[in-house]
Amino acid sequence: MRLLGRGVRCVRGGREVLSGLDFEASSGEVLAVTGPNGSGKTSLLRIIAGLLALAGGSVELEGGGDELTLPDQAHYLGHRDAMKPALSVHENLSFWRDFLGGEAVDAKKNLVNDSLVSESLINDSLAAVGLDHAAHLPAAYLSAGQRRRLSIARLLVTRRPVWLLDEPTSALDAAGQALFVRLMSEHLARGGLIIAATHAPLGIESRELRIGETS
Ligand SMILES: Nc1ncnc2c1ncn2[C@@H]1O[C@H](COP(=O)(O)OP(=O)(O)OP(=O)(O)O)[C@@H](O)[C@H]1O
């Protein structure tokens, strides 16, 4: 699988933010998008996620699911944690699983239509990010790092091969960063790919795409 961007152009508020940008990332690879504030890193992730229109060029996923669009095959984790504060941690994750079309699979990768299995997927995902003890707390009570962990759990309730991550390690403590590195490594080992906008090292081997140097 390969994500390919050619001649990408982005205009925001009448200003050209990206122009003629080429990039690619393959299965098992992390592309770290770096550059000064306002250089267009978030805009690029939002274009790939289908949340922002291209003003020119193309972005394509080769070797993905034939009947699925690129946005259907991508997880977008913005730098703001998209959680409803009045819902519990568990309810927030259930919402995202349903919204993203989460499917439970058994050990032989067969689809399982079983609410108990779905329930254990939520619990396993919360445990994987160290939030099992907080499942019934309102999301409003979470600390910044815990909110980030809950966002990361979204990546686990539905498997999608392309992870688009905006400043994914912000607010994470050392243990949280180590945990996230492990989750990213497992994702890459399964053939996934990651594009991350970041100002800080991700703690995992990556290739750099530097943008906005001249602006
Ligand atoms: N909704 C919008 N309308 C107009 N301009 C916008 C909008 N959103 C972003 N911009 C502009 O687009 C440019 C790129 O913003 P973007 O958020 O992609 O940068 P970034 O590289 O992610 O920055 P940072 O490192 O600060 O997160 C900035 O000049 C910003 O002001």
TrEMBL record:
InterPro entries: AAA+_ATPase, ABC_transporter-like_ATP-bd, ABC_transporter-like_CS, ABC_transptr_haem_export_CcmA, P-loop_NTPase. GO terms for biological process: cytochrome complex assembly. Residues 1-214 form the ABC transporter domain. PROSITE patterns: ABC_TRANSPORTER_1, ABC_TRANSPORTER_2. It holds the Pfam family ABC_tran. It comes from the Bacteria. GO terms for molecular function: ATP binding; ATP hydrolysis activity; transmembrane transporter activity. Keywords: ATP-binding, Cytochrome c-type biogenesis, Membrane, Nucleotide-binding, Translocase, Transport. Belongs to the ABC transporter superfamily. NCBIfam families: ccmA. PANTHER family: ABC TRANSPORTER I FAMILY MEMBER 1. Involved in beta-(1-->2)glucan export. Transmembrane domains (TMD) form a pore in the inner membrane and the ATP-binding domain (NBD) is responsible for energy generation. This is Heme exporter protein A. The lineage of its organism: Bacteria, Pseudomonadati, Pseudomonadota, Alphaproteobacteria, Hyphomicrobiales.
